[in-house]
Design brief:
heterodimer; A: three-stranded antiparallel beta sheet; globular; B: mainly alpha; 81% helix
C-alpha cells in the first residue's frame, strides 16, 4: 500500500469520525440550527486532532444490503432472546444452567472480531468470555442449554452471527473460508 | 386518548415489564454469569421500548436526543458485560455445577498439562 493511499484512507477515516461526532453533538443539543451543526463539525475536528486514531491497515468493505440484513438479524435476535432469558428466569430460576463453549473464530481482523464479539454479546442469553486470536478460537457463555442438542444449536447460532458479520464487513477470503467451514460441519 | 397515546402506553408498559423480569432474573438466577444476562439484556430491550414510548410523547427535538441514549446503550452494554464476565471467570467465581459443559476449563487444563 503506497503512502499516498494510506494518507487518503486516513483522512477519509478522520472525516467519518468528524461526521459522527458532529451528529452526536447536534443530537445532544436536540436542535438543528446552523450554530449546532457548525459547532459540531468544529468539535469533531478538535477532538480528532487531540485524540489521534491508530493507523488503519485496510478499509473494511462496505456492503449496505448485508449490513442492513445484519442489523435486522440483531434486532430480531434481541427481541426473541430477551423473551428467552425471561422464560429461563420464570421457568427454571435457581435451577437455570449455562454452558461455556469453544467455537472457531472465522476472522483474523481486529475490527471484525470486535464487531463479532459485540454483536454476539448484545443478544441476550449469550456473551463472549475469551478470545484467542492466536489459535482462532473464542469462548462463549450461553444461558439455558439443558442437553447436547441445545448446545449444538447454540454453536450453530454463534457461527451464524459470525457469518452475518463477515457478510457485512469481512474480507472476501474470510467469507470463502467461512463457507468451507460451514460445509464441513453437519 | 388518541391512538398515539395507546401505542406509547403499550411500549412503556412492555419496557417496564422487561425491566421487572430483568430485576427478577438478577435475584433468582444461580450464577454471576447468568445474572449478568438478566442484568444487561432484558434491560436493553426494556430501555429501548421505554425510550420509544417516551419519544412518542415528547416534542420531536427531545425525541432525537433519546435516540442518542439508545445508541450509546447498544454500543456500551456488550463491552461492559464482556469485561465483567471475563473478570468473573478469571477470579474463579463461577461455580462449575451450574454449567452443563465448560470447554474453556478443559482447554486451560490441557495447556497446564503441556507445561
Amino acid at each position: 500500500m503506497s503512502d499516498a493511499h494510506s494518507g487518503t484512507l486516513r483522512s477519509a477515516t478522520r472525516l467519518l469520525s468528524v461526521a459522527w461526532l458532529a451528529v452526536v453533538w447536534v443530537l445532544l443539543w436536540g436542535s438543528f440550527t446552523l450554530l449546532t451543526i457548525v459547532g459540531g463539525v468544529l468539535v469533531g475536528f478538535v477532538v480528532t486532532a487531540l485524540f489521534r486514531a491508530g493507523p488503519v491497515a485496510h478499509r473494511l468493505p462496505f456492503r449496505p444490503v448485508a449490513l442492513l440484513a445484519l442489523l435486522w438479524h440483531l434486532a430480531c435476535d434481541l427481541v426473541v432472546s430477551s423473551f428467552d432469558v425471561s422464560r429461563q428466569t420464570l421457568r427454571y430460576g435457581w435451577r437455570a444452567r449455562g454452558a461455556i463453549l469453544e467455537v472457531p473464530l472465522l476472522s483474523t481482523s481486529d475490527r471484525v472480531v470486535a464487531l463479532i464479539a459485540s454483536a454476539y454479546t448484545l443478544s441476550p442469553g449469550t456473551l463472549v468470555l475469551q478470545i484467542d486470536l492466536q489459535r482462532s478460537l473464542w469462548y462463549i457463555y450461553i444461558l439455558g442449554p439443558r442437553d447436547s442438542a441445545d448446545i449444538e444449536a447454540a454453536r450453530t447460532a454463534a457461527m451464524e452471527i459470525q457469518r452475518s458479520v463477515l457478510a457485512a464487513v469481512g474480507a472476501p477470503e474470510e467469507i470463502a473460508q467461512a463457507r468451507r467451514m460451514m460445509m464441513g460441519r453437519p | 386518548m388518541t391512538f398515539l397515546d395507546v401505542v406509547s402506553a403499550v411500549l412503556l408498559l412492555a419496557g417496564a415489564a422487561q425491566g421487572l423480569l430483568g430485576a427478577l432474573g438478577l435475584v433468582v438466577l444461580p450464577s454471576l454469569l447468568s445474572r449478568l444476562q438478566a442484568a444487561t439484556k432484558p434491560q436493553t430491550l426494556g430501555l429501548l421500548l421505554i425510550l420509544a414510548g417516551a419519544a412518542l410523547r415528547v416534542p420531536f427535538e427531545s425525541a432525537v436526543t433519546l435516540l442518542l441514549v439508545a445508541v450509546f446503550q447498544l454500543i456500551t452494554a456488550p463491552v461492559i458485560a464482556q469485561i465483567v464476565a471475563r473478570s468473573v471467570y478469571r477470579s474463579g467465581a463461577v461455580r462449575p455445577e451450574v454449567l452443563v459443559v465448560d470447554e474453556l476449563a478443559q482447554r486451560l487444563e490441557r495447556s497446564d498439562d503441556e507445561r
